[in-house]
């Protein structure tokens, strides 16, 4: 069964450093999402891609966070500089949903747990 | 924007009993409502979903009901087993690009 891949699984960094997370969605999935999940809370959408285009980044702290999906396949989420409050699980998800079509189910990866010291 | 409230935040049941988790949403345009199960250290996994044109859906021991008028939907798990212990999240999709909003989660503990 195809799965969403994420790396690294765990990351420890010091504040003010740069960190990057990678996501490889299920093959053929047009839509890719990055979420942040603080312990004890539900996932919060950071950015949504439709193919290579950003369709929603309203909750992305753009002064320090950036995301790209250059070829419309895999994606990278970057934080620079990292702050203590960025400690969380970063989840990637993908779905088949193409532009104009009814939403399809999102499939989540295992996440990257970030600890900022 | 959409607001999704989920109750209860924690739920303990005896093995074999039923568990019910409820969610309410605010955007009447929301049209897709999935439920996810998240085990410790893992990403959420879809367990059941329902679209706005359906009132109830069942898959073995799991069922979801939707009341569009009242804007609430519920997850029902019957004959609970210890492996059902996890955090469950509801979600609601709305808008042209189907923006998703998650509930705050319910930690279910099934006591053997």
Tell me the layout of helices and strands.
The complex is a heterodimer of chains A (117) and B (112).
Chain A: E1 5-7, E2 10-13, E3 19-24, E4 31-37, E5 44-50, E6 53-56, E7 65-68, E8 75-79, E9 88-95, E10 107-108, E11 112-116
Parallel strand pairs in A: 2-11
Antiparallel strand pairs in A: 1-3, 3-8, 4-5, 4-9, 5-6, 7-8, 9-10, 9-11
Chain B: E1 4-7, E2 10-14, E3 19-25, E4 32-38, E5 45-51, E6 56-59, E7 62-67, E8 72-77, E9 86-94, E10 99-102, E11 106-111
Parallel strand pairs in B: 2-11
Antiparallel strand pairs in B: 1-3, 3-8, 4-5, 4-9, 6-7, 7-8, 9-10, 9-11
Structure explained in plain terms:
The complex is a heterodimer of chains A (117) and B (112). Chain A has no helices and eleven strands. Chain A is mainly β and 117 residues long. Chain A has strands spanning 5-7, 10-13, 19-24, 31-37, 44-50, 53-56, 65-68, 75-79, 88-95, 107-108, 112-116. With 112 residues, chain B is an all-beta fold. Chain B is 0% helix and 58% strand. Classes of the chains: A mainly beta (117), B mainly beta (112). Chain A binds chain B through residues 4, 33, 40-45, 48, 50, 55-56, 91, 93, 97, 102-103, 105-111, 113, and chain B through 6, 32, 34, 36, 41-46, 49, 89, 91, 93, 97-105.
Output the radius of gyration of chain B: 13 Å
Mean pLDDT metric of chain B: 92
Order of H and E elements of chain A: EEEEEEEEEEE
Structural category of chain A: mainly beta
Question: In terms of quaternary structure, what is this?
Answer: heterodimer
Q: SSE string of chain B, helix = H, strand = E? A: EEEEEEEEEEE
- Strand percentage of chain B: over 45%
> Greatest contact pair?
A-B, 25 and 23 residues
Arithmetic mean of pLDDT of chain A: 91
Straight-line N-to-C gap of chain B: 41 Å
Number of beta-strand segments of chain B: 11
Spatial shape of chain A: globular
- Uncertain segments of chain B: none
How many whole angstroms does the radius of gyration of chain A measure?
A: 14 Å
Number-wise, the strands of chain A total 11
- Biggest sheet layout of chain B: 6 strands, mixed
Helical residues, percent of chain A: under 10%
State the secondary-structure class of chain B: mainly beta
In terms of per-residue confidence, which ranges of chain A show pLDDT below 50 for 5 or more consecutive residues?
A: none
Number of helices of chain A: 0
Share of residues in strands of chain A:
over 45%
């Amino acid at each position: 069964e195809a799965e969403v891949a994420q790396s690294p699984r765990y990351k420890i960094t010091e504040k003010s450093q740069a960190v990057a997370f990678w996501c490889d969605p299920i093959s053929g999935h047009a839509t890719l999402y990055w979420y942040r999940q603080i312990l004890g809370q539900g996932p919060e959408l950071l950015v949504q891609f439709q193919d290579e285009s950003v369709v929603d980044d309203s909750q992305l702290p753009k002064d320090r966070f950036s995301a790209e999906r250059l070829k419309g396949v895999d994606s990278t989420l970057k934080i620079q500089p990292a702050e203590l409050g960025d400690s969380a699980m970063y989840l990637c998800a993908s779905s088949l949903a193409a532009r104009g079509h009814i939403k399809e189910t999102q499939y989540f990866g295992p996440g990257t747990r970030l600890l900022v010291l | 924007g959409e607001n999704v409230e989920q109750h209860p935040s924690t739920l303990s049941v005896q093995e074999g009993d039923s568990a019910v988790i409820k969610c309410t949403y605010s955007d009447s345009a929301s049209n897709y409502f999935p439920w996810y199960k998240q085990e410790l250290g893992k990403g959420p996994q879809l367990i059941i979903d329902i679209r706005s044109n359906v009132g109830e859906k069942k898959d073995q021991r799991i069922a979801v009901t939707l009341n569009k008028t009242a804007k609430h939907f519920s997850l029902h798990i019957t004959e609970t087993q210890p492996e059902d212990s996890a955090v469950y999240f509801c979600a609601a999709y709305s808008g042209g690009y189907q923006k998703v909003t998650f509930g705050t989660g319910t930690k279910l503990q099934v006591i053997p």
